[in-house]
Design goal:
homodimer, Rossmann fold, 6-stranded mixed β-sheet, 4-stranded parallel β-sheet, 10 strands, globular
């Protein structure tokens, strides 16, 4: 077993408490995409559910625990996807949820959080400012602080994606996982290293929000001062030490990709797979685009982690002509 | 049991021979869509698979039968989706497939049929000309003619969608089913009338290809001379008498929708559900748009039957401003 905070028995148990609408998601080989990218691409689709991202897996585990412990509420900082998911899972159980977001967050995601019945608190700045405010609210109100990636429930919920990929008996060489705070990367990575250690776990992060990737390579926490990426779902500046330790135990590599590749990845997923995805969900394809030689002919799984994107942004980003050369 | 050619035991058996990649598809309530349309909308998503439509369910049943009977091949007429699905299922079993399409068919769908290894025969004209040619090829080569909707395997394969909806225990008032040849409508309708007869089965067809709907209302086959719709997946002119008889036994209504509503439906599905869909898949939403009073406050399921649409067409159709008033 890989030496992380995660536990395979808890991950298996997590799957049983998650609303079925979030699990057993589609996984299929997308030949047009693979043909274009020079490898076999399995798409694991996490967008066909009420919150349009994989975060429902983790929020369900969190809220199941709160309900079991008679907790009175939860608060989280979120750029949108965790907030939506927590709001959904809280409403389902009658547990109040507060979401703290930066004023720069995606307006569509914020609308959905409100519509799902959560209290929304907006703070100036980015996700790191929101994290500080969420912590303060939790202390003041005596409610559960859900810190994405630090909170084991969020990692073990996300890990059920890995369980489904491993148990589907599909032959894989590489799994590409979007890297932000680290919940999905450590979760999916833990399961692969525990059950299918030969599969390479490659984390992908935008070069405009590289803190966790830099930290992984230097084996110590490295923070950054700014964030400059369209991939709002993975935009953090302050990696959490415990999560970095877990990631060091399960990731085989962590790579950075540039913004034009993310946009091209979104366009490829639209044109070749018929999918609308948010930038974070295109990180895997971006990695394939930036390093085709590394992945040529190999069997790759990429997790399409969310589709919460403003339509105008999506249209603009996917109409860009910038496309990295596919040749090595 | 409704008096059709279909059989519930065979439908249950069908599910066991279908490649798992086509079954147990996502079904979830899409609140943003429902809020906009004034009802509860459950999306049953049939696009997240290797052929991007529901047709793999039927093609798998067809090809399983051919393989069991040591058949030497199959031919079908198809605007694209059945052709892709048959090609996929044939390749999986090493059975040669020939697809006959009209020269007016969607080029992207035709490319995919070729890439899946099927022989592609193009004939002038529309799907009815292709049907005649397919019949002639089948007779000449002594191979199985797969006539969509007439061939019971295609209906009973599609019927497994209904089985999943019924068995999911979700409370529904209405199921909206795209109507073309009738395989999906009779299949899904049969299952609902057999197992959950209180649910209203409403078929939806474009007013530019109204033959089967007119036939259903007049209770006899009515043909049309022309086809004028962007919904290529449901564009037929000559309803099959046996299929009409089945449809009369299971459908509660059949309605026609106009082209602007189909385009608006596609745009709503893009903007509110994050889905790229082909026109046929937006027929249900188009029906909700055209008759909001009928569906107000009710629990509706709509089957998103395919996403094989040219990106430029999709962009053009979804950018149109035409939108029917939502008020009654």
């Amino acid at each position: 077993m890989p030496g992380t905070r995660l536990d395979l028995h808890r991950i298996r148990a997590a799957r049983k408490v998650i609303d079925p609408v979030f699990v057993d998601t589609p996984a299929y080989i997308c030949e047009p995409l693979g043909r274009r990218l020079g490898c076999e691409v399995t798409v694991k689709l996490e967008t066909a559910n009420p919150v349009r991202s994989f975060k429902g897996r983790g929020s369900e585990v969190v809220m199941d625990g709160i309900a079991a412990g008679n907790g009175s509420g939860a608060v989280c900082a979120s750029a949108g996807n965790l907030g939506q998911a927590l709001a959904y899972s809280g409403r389902r159980r009658g547990i109040p949820v507060t979401v703290v977001a930066g004023t720069s967050a995606n307006p569509g995601k914020l609308d959905r959080i409100r519509e799902l019945g959560a209290e929304l608190v907006l703070v100036d700045g980015d996700i790191e400012n929101a994290r500080a405010e969420a912590s303060s609210i939790a202390a003041g109100r005596g409610i559960r602080l859900v810190e994405d990636s630090l909170d084991l429930d969020t990692c073990e919920g996300a890990a059920t994606i890995g369980l489904e990929l491993v148990e589907s008996s599909r032959d894989l060489d590489v799994v590409l996982v979007a890297l932000g705070g680290g919940a999905m990367a450590t979760g999916v990575g833990h399961v692969f290293k525990a059950l299918s250690p030969g599969v390479e776990v490659v984390c992908v992060q935008p070069s405009g929000a590289p803190a966790m990737t830099r930290s992984w390579h230097r084996r110590r926490v490295v923070t950054t001062d700014t964030i400059d990426t369209i991939a709002d779902g993975v935009a953090g500046r302050h990696p959490i030490p415990e999560v970095l330790t877990d990631l060091l135990a399960v990731a085989d590599d962590a790579v950075l990709v540039d913004e034009p590749s993310i946009k091209t990845g979104m366009r490829f997923l639209r044109d070749l797979a018929g999918l609308i995805v948010e930038p974070s969900a295109a990180l895997g394809v971006a990695a394939l685009l930036e390093n085709p030689a590394r992945f040529a002919g190999r069997r790759i799984a990429t997790i399409i982690c969310g589709s919460n994107v403003d339509v105008d942004d999506f249209t603009r980003w996917t109409s860009m002509e910038a496309e990295p050369a596919l040749a090595d």
